[in-house]
Amino acid sequence: MATLTLTDKDRFLINQEGQDFSHEAKTFIKIRELALKNLKELDFPTNKLEDWKYTSLREVGKTEFRPQSATNIIADKVNAHKIANLDAYVLVFVNGFFEPKFSEVVEDKDGDFIVTNLNKAKKEFIKLVEPNLGLQTRAEDQFFVNLNSAFSQDGAFVYVKAKARLDKPVHIINLVDGDLVAAYPRNLIVAEKMAEAQVVVTYETIDSEAALSNVVNEVIVAEGAHVSLDKIQNENENTFHIGADFITQGKNSVFNINTIPANAKLIRNNLNILLDGQNSEANLYGAICLNGDIHVDNQTFVDHAKPNCESNELYKTVVNDKSTAIFNGKIYVNKIAQKTNAFQSNANILLSDDARANAKPQLEIYADDVKCSHGCTIGQFDDEALFYLRARGIKETTAQKVLLDAFIGEVLDNIKLEAVREYADKLIAANFNSKN
Amino acid sequence: MLKINGLEAEIDGKQILKGLNLEVKPGEVHAIMGPNGSGKSTLASVLAGREEYEVTGGSVDFDGKDLLDLAPEERAGEGVFLAFQYPVEIPGVSNINFIKTAVNEVREYRGLPNLETKEFMKLLKEKQQLVELSGKLANRSVNEGFSGGEKKRNEIFQMAMLEPKLGVLDETDSGLDIDALRIVANGVNELKSADNAFIVVTHYQRLLDYIVPDFVHVLYNGRIVKTGTKELALELEEKGYDWIIKEFEEA
Fold this sequence. Notes:
In chain A, 22% of the residues lie in helices and 39% in strands.
């Protein structure tokens, strides 16, 4: 008889079990089963993997995180996480579970759009969910994507009918409450032909000594559709946040994403964009300002699968104290994707001796008639500019803030919702000021 | 107003100023001339508080305060203004926000309340006209894409907004055509009063046709080696510096 030794991974996976998904339609159970099968074969990511070289998850594997619902959630504690002056349909999830009493759902099947929770949509709008859920199959080898697929409790479902437009943005609030929580929120956003949607996703903490937020967002931007996604990650310093976004774009579509990882113990983002129709355009922006001891790892992958598409990517980072920022941006241009325009830029400013930034741009180009560029810089605030401001009577701390706003502002200017922009501004200013 | 006594300063271990003395009283305009490398720009930089320069000796008294003890922003608050030889481009910071922040920070230092937007805009328009600076530049990033003349006019504009007691113009005339030179000089002349003073650092006598100095100093090898009136500048233009250097070395 073989001896059975449990690895960290085995123990970790056992802890995630116990949720009952048997009420789900077969098609969705299949997704979970496939993910479980993948998880059995995959190793827990370690630094030996190139993609995880700078981000260690050892502690995650050794911590007894478990899915658990929160009880007695007080309205005040949820309301504190709304964005001031943002007029939006709000959906609230705590530890991955839907909180209908704090949420505003719109479920008109014949109307222009649906804003509800995914579990309900899996039952009531199965024809809309089934063809779209599970694009993660292009990430079969990604442990944490499979983990979410296997154990996801719930998430948001945002659907906009062809030629329709969401009349308000949707704000998906994901909260964590409790210790050793494993939350697996999964959002599905579907914009049909020529549809328009603006979605804001925030990740925050009510109270937690230790948490794992393992999130997946899937976005389908059909032909001629326009979707923007603002993603703000602001959990507490006890949280491991491991997220992935999968965007699939049809021809003539436009997708904009602003990623703002503001706080957590560790944040890892895998942003995957597939430009799967001609003349589609993707704009990827990241604004990162870190203080204290935060580790943020942004991995982006733009797949130019069809000709005449354009992608613009700009990630800007300011790192202070003992924090670390990692950027790994890959652009892949298929051999048929002629006339591709792909631009990538990553600029980092280090403000302390212990601050770290790692930047790795990757271009893989198989077409011969393309315009692609990338640039990475790591430096400090311009001393000359700082002196110039001070020589005009501006205090050093104010002068630094002026330069920060100028540097990060180029990214934040792409947030079209004024209230969200202000919210992001405040988070960034708070991070910047906390050690200044 | 300003008393510089035996000022010594070095950069990267190289001594540039070697015991410089200069006294400036309210209402005066002093021109500092001298060959390349004599220490003219170093003097301007040390007065403004540029950190690369290390003061190794001497003192600078500004209205009873030890200027060398103050941070650059405090010097500006006290009323020292340096018009940069090479104004810095700051992408992403609009000219108008920059000057508004500066005006209000300086006012705060001087114990004055912030300017109301209306008052600020009025002041802004008035001072823009003074140096014929297009209002369009207000919304552009600080000095970014400005022509050489626009940059220098922007310096004088900032000086006008901040109302310093002592304006130090570091080769403000370099690279200017005659029209721009006239505008810049006119701006300075308009700002001149019995209560303020200017130090004009320049290579050329040309600027001094427009900004008439009360004193002309020749800086050589880190010291002022000759002081005269505006006629000295004309003489220098004609004969160069060699005769002064010779005179100084023989003395």
